[in-house]
Amino acid sequence: MKAISDLLSWKNGKSYLPNDLVPQSTMLHSHGTVLNGVKMGWSDVRIFLAVARSGTLGAAGRLLKISHPTVSRRLQALEEATGQTLFQRTADGYVLTEEGAAVLTMAEHMEEAALAMERRLAGDVQKLEGTLRISSPDWFGAWVLPPVMARFSKAHPDVDIEVLTGTRLFSLAQREADVAFRILPFAEADIVQRRLIQMPYGVYINADLDVPEPGKGAGFSLVTMDTSLGAFPDIDWLKQKLPGAKVALKSNNRNVQAQMSCAGVGIVVLPRPVGDQQSRLKRVDLGEAPPPREIWMGYHRDVRRSARLRAFVDMAVSMLAN
């Protein structure tokens, strides 16, 4: 599929969205966004938005995969052409001025129009080829998805798979990912989603260590999630079951937690597909199992007709749904 830049019209070295793809509320001229009589094409808007969101020229350049000097030069040219100072330069970075803040809403509308066109074109692709980006928590990508990926790759060898893992929620609307797995329902608009799995959790400790008695825990250590990232019912449950235990280590990565527990750092609660595969760990019975977590799968409705997406979603459901 062509990149969005290939699908825009060009004029005087700048790109512009076609009329019917830019919301009328943002079209102050026949093409692009107009500021003080100067057209801001899509290439201008991308520079403006990247600096507004990242706050520095270096970070904006990394987002756009262009050099720091290029970002600086094009931003300066944009401000000179419009006669407006869009950013205040501070010691901490670039901050939108009042004029820049006024442009931001129009720029975001133009971006959404471009992204909508890209999603629609991606959704119309009926060939089982191209790139499929999958986002998931680190442990899910490492311990649950591999069998699905192996079968899918064998069935559809012309589809290139990218698996993006971690705590960051990759945007489906901005096509950072095509399909995502999360432990909470999707809050974004226009997402087709379903509850895929109720994932069981277990409590584990190094196989050579003694196990604690339920309701006690004195003299034992815990390895837990970094709860500053949000609420984790399994961590709260573990602390209630072992009130005398102290937290020895926190990590935002379940795989790291598993390896720390394997090394003897402390007791850990893990998704069963992670903990059960660790030969140096043993399960701890605290009278009941930790609360399970739901796993949700979602994708943007604009890409629902994509053949490669449908093939993957159908396979994931058939292999994982309970």
Folded structure, characterized:
- The protein is of the alpha/beta class.
- The chain has helices spanning 42-54, 57-64, 68-82, 98-123, 138-143, 146-155, 233-241, 254-262, 272-275, 307-320; strands at 9-11, 14-16, 33-35, 38-40, 87-90, 93-96, 130-136, 159-165, 179-182, 191-199, 201-206, 221-225, 246-251, 267-271, 281-283, 293-300.
- The strands form 5 sheets. A 5-stranded mixed beta sheet has the order 8-7-9-16-10. Strands 13-12-14-11-15 form a 5-stranded mixed beta sheet, with helices on both faces. It has a two-stranded antiparallel ribbon with strand order 1-2.
- The chain starts with 8 loop residues before the first strand and ends with a helix.
- Mean pLDDT is 84; it is low at 1-32.
Brief characterization of the structure:
With 322 residues, the protein is α/β, with parallel strands linked by helices. It has ten helices and 16 strands.
List the helices and strands and how they pair.
Elements: E1 9-11, E2 14-16, E3 33-35, E4 38-40, H1 42-54, H2 57-64, H3 68-82, E5 87-90, E6 93-96, H4 98-123, E7 130-136, H5 138-143, H6 146-155, E8 159-165, E9 179-182, E10 191-199, E11 201-206, E12 221-225, H7 233-241, E13 246-251, H8 254-262, E14 267-271, H9 272-275, E15 281-283, E16 293-300, H10 307-320
Parallel strand pairs: 7-8, 7-9, 12-13, 12-14
Antiparallel strand pairs: 1-2, 3-4, 5-6, 9-16, 10-16, 11-14, 11-15
